[in-house]
């Protein structure tokens, strides 16, 4: 008997069956629920189907989905994890800060750039695991690809498709934006392919974030002015510093001090190239405090605390963008960046950011 519907024997009172009669409206035993004792089969057929389907989903999701359905759901969840979607708000804050530096971006164009950058980031993250599949099989077998939650071919296809989508969307803004998009996609692929064991990898990772600034400004039709270049290079320094301190995490003596200066550099650059006002100073102080707190956590011996600290440094990218926005006269964008910082931390509780 299937829990997808009621047994046919209920349709006739005179049916000869070895199974004892059941009251009309009773749920099949396979669903694990008792009958409500009321209900007319014909009048309540539609509503009962909904009840039964819901009951099956709660009590036997695999049986109701089927093997193929359960496999698809598992693959989708795995791709969400691979894409590190919890960190996407920091990509959005990059775009917002860059739009401030560009002098503004019309809402439809801003939305398109946000989607394009989200696609590029997510595609790059998925491909990162695709490139690392054999290494992860030895060192981190619980990762989605070696664990078999998603097929490697699916990861390659989805990752490359997202990169292509992001490049195509940015290319619609013109030749300069298209060139920046291709450069960004190229930097992503270079990092994904050669980030293990190569000293230049942190710089390439930082370059990926810097190119988000540059591509956004070019999509807005603005010039690559000195403040834009300075902010992009400072963001490159932050992400490179993040990578370096994260690699050395685990012992107090193992975390070098000089990369911490790279983490604080964008705050000073934003204040130097923009306007020093009460909001920008407040944002700068808050961002610096969060960064210092996170670095302290990286020097902890507890693995869980170190992982949270890396996530905090990733989320703090949005605070750095907030300082840039405040220093260049856009308080609204600065406050949105603070909200995106909080959103990143909240999402990291659901989907790991590292």
TrEMBL record:
<feature type="transmembrane region" description="Helical">
    <location>
        <begin position="201"/>
        <end position="222"/>
    </location>
</feature>
<dbReference type="Pfam" id="PF01040">
    <property type="entry name" value="UbiA"/>
</dbReference>
<keyword id="KW-0812">Transmembrane</keyword>
<keyword id="KW-0472">Membrane</keyword>
<protein>
    <submittedName>
        <fullName>UbiA prenyltransferase</fullName>
    </submittedName>
</protein>
<feature type="transmembrane region" description="Helical">
    <location>
        <begin position="228"/>
        <end position="246"/>
    </location>
</feature>
<feature type="transmembrane region" description="Helical">
    <location>
        <begin position="150"/>
        <end position="171"/>
    </location>
</feature>
<dbReference type="InterPro" id="IPR050475">
    <property type="entry name" value="Prenyltransferase_related"/>
</dbReference>
<dbReference type="InterPro" id="IPR044878">
    <property type="entry name" value="UbiA_sf"/>
</dbReference>
<dbReference type="GO" id="GO:0016020">
    <property type="term" value="C:membrane"/>
</dbReference>
<feature type="region of interest" description="Disordered">
    <location>
        <begin position="1"/>
        <end position="25"/>
    </location>
</feature>
<keyword id="KW-1133">Transmembrane helix</keyword>
<dbReference type="GO" id="GO:0016765">
    <property type="term" value="F:transferase activity, transferring alkyl or aryl (other than methyl) groups"/>
</dbReference>
<feature type="transmembrane region" description="Helical">
    <location>
        <begin position="258"/>
        <end position="274"/>
    </location>
</feature>
<feature type="transmembrane region" description="Helical">
    <location>
        <begin position="95"/>
        <end position="121"/>
    </location>
</feature>
<feature type="transmembrane region" description="Helical">
    <location>
        <begin position="280"/>
        <end position="298"/>
    </location>
</feature>
<dbReference type="InterPro" id="IPR000537">
    <property type="entry name" value="UbiA_prenyltransferase"/>
</dbReference>
<keyword id="KW-0808">Transferase</keyword>
<keyword id="KW-1003">Cell membrane</keyword>
<feature type="transmembrane region" description="Helical">
    <location>
        <begin position="333"/>
        <end position="351"/>
    </location>
</feature>
<feature type="transmembrane region" description="Helical">
    <location>
        <begin position="310"/>
        <end position="327"/>
    </location>
</feature>
């Amino acid at each position: 008997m299937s829990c997808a519907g009621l047994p046919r024997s209920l349709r006739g009172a005179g049916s000869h069956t070895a199974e004892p009669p059941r009251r009309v409206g009773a749920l099949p035993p396979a669903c694990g629920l008792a009958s409500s004792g009321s209900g007319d089969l014909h009048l309540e057929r539609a509503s009962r189907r909904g009840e039964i389907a819901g009951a099956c989903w709660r009590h036997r999701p695999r049986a109701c989905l089927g093997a193929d359905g359960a496999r698809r759901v598992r693959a989708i969840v795995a791709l969400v994890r691979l894409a590190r979607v919890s960190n996407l708000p920091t990509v959005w804050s990059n775009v917002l800060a860059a739009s401030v530096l560009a002098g503004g971006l019309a809402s439809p164009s801003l939305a398109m750039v946000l989607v394009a950058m989200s696609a590029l980031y997510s595609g790059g993250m998925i491909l990162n695991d695709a490139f690392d599949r054999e290494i992860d099989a030895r060192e981190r077998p619980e990762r989605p690809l070696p664990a078999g939650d998603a097929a490697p071919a699916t990861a390659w296809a989805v990752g490359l498709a997202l990169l292509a989508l992001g490049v195509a969307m940015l290319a619609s803004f013109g030749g300069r934006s298209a060139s920046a998009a291709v450069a960004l996609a190229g930097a992503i692929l270079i990092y994904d392919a050669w980030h293990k064991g190569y000293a230049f990898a942190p710089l390439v990772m930082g370059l990926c974030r810097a190119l988000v600034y540059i591509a956004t400004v070019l999509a807005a039709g603005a010039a690559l002015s000195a403040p834009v270049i300075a902010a992009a290079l400072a963001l490159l320094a932050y992400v490179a510093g993040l990578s370096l301190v994260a690699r050395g995490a685990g012992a107090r003596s193992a975390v070098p001090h000089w990369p911490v200066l790279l983490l604080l550099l964008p705050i000073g650059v934003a204040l130097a190239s923009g306007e020093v006002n009460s909001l920008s100073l407040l944002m700068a102080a808050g961002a610096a405090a969060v960064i210092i707190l996170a670095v302290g956590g990286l020097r902890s011996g507890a693995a869980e605390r170190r992982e949270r600290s890396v996530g905090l440094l990733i989320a703090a990218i949005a605070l750095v963008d907030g300082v840039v926005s405040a220093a260049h006269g856009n308080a609204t964008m600065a406050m949105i960046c603070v909200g995106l910082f909080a959103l990143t931390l909240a999402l990291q509780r659901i989907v790991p950011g590292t």
